[in-house]
Amino acid sequence: MKFIEKHNIFSFFLFTYLLSWISWIAAYMLFPDNTLFQMPLMRIGAFSPALISILFCSVKASAHSDPAKKRGMTFLMVWIIACIHFYFYLTDIEQIESGVTLIIITVTTSLLPAFVLSNVFSKNKGIREHLSTIFLPTGKWIWHLIAFLIIPFILGLDILINDFLGNQTGNAEYSMHNHTILEFIWIFILIIVVQSLQAGGLSEEPGWRGYAQKRLQKKYPPLFAGIIIGLCWGIWHFPVYIPQLSNLSIWAILYGCLQIGLMFTWIYNRTQGSLLAVIILHASWNTFTKFIPKTYIFDIIIGCILVIIIFTDKMWLPTRQKEKKWISGS
Hints:
Number of domains: 1
Order of helices and strands: HHHHHHHHHHHHHHHHH
Number of strands: 0
Number of helices: 17
Shape: globular
Oligomer: single chain
């Protein structure tokens, strides 16, 4: 415990990597041809940033109060909603055949988002403070709206510029040409909710931003903190990238990691540490890129925006003293 307290950032990345990589590699080795059976282990790996951050935030702060009723009700409500949603997601999006096995997988994997969100009302003060901005977001609401809209806005510019240049943009993974309007809306809802609750948003952001970025910015400027988290985030995904490595450029992966690291750092700081904002941004990024075709123009626009952000917010400078209150870790 003393080592974790003294080297909390290094320990967070180490234990997050260990839990994720062991879970993912075990899923591939134990069930090489069965994605359904892989799912519980894959979800544990995906939730490791949030789970490890909750564990570490519980180390120093002791129980302060015991809002057990709120925690229990939140757990039950989220679990039921997550079970229903994830079942329809797996049957309608992943095209997995309904049955007892699917129900068991759905029920067990949905325990993870229920556990994380119910800990907003944990009896441990450190955990409550760590997760509080999911339900009580800080910062102005406009930045949460920007977090949701910035990716579809850039994707829209991507299409307009390609049309102007006469370039073909290709097809998105999901298109209205293949579905009715109601089907398209249903698919969108299923995917953005899964990206918020089950993958990406809730499973990762309490760790990357809520734990690591807070503590990194006590020592380093936001620019450096964003680059570190972006690169560590990319390395963390390595076991998931392995099947796609033949089709991906290592430079494209690194650039994508830096995009994520700096964009999310910017939104998190602009909202004074709102986990809800970065969860929204994460879900928006993962969802809209499935519905709107993306080309190299997207990466150029993101690069230009990041340059403007870095210079406008002077991200190379240490965080201001007046912001120390929310940046300091518990």
